[in-house]
Amino acid sequence: MKVDIWSDTRCPFCFIGKKNFEKALQNFAQNDKIEVNWHSFQLDPKMKTDLSRNHYEYLSDIKGHSLQETIKMHENLIQIGKNAGIDFNFDEVKVSNSFKSQMLVQLAKEKGKTNEMEELLFEAYFILGQNIDDVEVLSEIGEKLGFTKNEIKNAVQSPELTELVNNDIEEAASLGINSVPFFVFDRKYAISGAQPTHLFSEVLEKSFSESDSKINIISEGDSCDVGGNNC
């Protein structure tokens, strides 16, 4: 069974959703039969990398709240993150456009390491305070997964990977996805947002139980079967 996940590497709820989903998947008895497919998404494609402002200052500017209000509004998010095993470091977050990092996610598909790449990119952005729009930073991340610096530098200039990122974004639009994280289970059920682990578990069980179910035949007539009977 396939689980498709649309995610932006600069979305804190995507990081939380990933952790909660992974806990559910780890506890799922049939997890070896689940294929997880990460898809690219950008919440703000036009956002320019600005290392002069941290996460709080950036949101304060675009939302029109005071810096103190913005920090206060994040208290609950920080606690939710802790519950998921994440120590958000919003004071040090470097405001970065995420397109190049999404190209690395597409590159990682070649080695079946998208989950690991997503994790490293989330950590780089939200915990280590790194600029995920910087090729040197991305090269260091890629090297941890066995890519060379040249592979990473070529990847962020690749028309093919650019197209793959844009295809994912276009597919999301065609499905009506306008917020992330967004999880689609076997193209039957969907979960929007960083939901608790138990909900992911419930949908995994339901989707998997139905994925192997036989087709309900409404009406039967004369036919040939695979054994050649009745022909």
The ordered string of helix (H) and strand (E) elements is EHEHHHHHHHHEEH
Category from helices, strands and their pairing: alpha+beta
Mean pLDDT, as a whole number?
90
How much of the polypeptide forms β-strand, as a percent range?
5-15%
Give the overall silhouette.
globular
Biggest beta sheet attributes: 4 strands, mixed
- Stretches where pLDDT is under 50 for at least 5 consecutive residues are 214-231
Strand order of the largest sheet: 2-1-3-4
Give the total of beta strands.
4
Number of helices: 10
Q: Please state the CA-atom Rg, rounded to the nearest Å.
A: 21 Å
Query: How far apart, in Å, are the first and last alpha carbons?
Result: 35 Å
User: How much helical structure, as a percent, in the residues?
Assistant: 40-55%
Question: Could you describe the 3D structure shown?
Answer:
With 231 residues, the chain is of the alpha+beta class. The chain contains 10 helices and 4 strands; from the N terminus they run E-H-E-H-H-H-H-H-H-H-H-E-E-H. The chain has helices at residues 12-26, 55-63, 67-73, 75-84, 99-108, 114-126, 135-143, 149-155, 159-174, 197-211; strands at 2-7, 35-40, 182-185, 189-192. The chain has a 4-stranded mixed beta sheet, with helices on both faces. Helix 1 links the parallel strand 1 (2-7) and strand 2. The longest helix has 16 residues, at 159-174. Mean pLDDT is 90; it is low at 214-231.
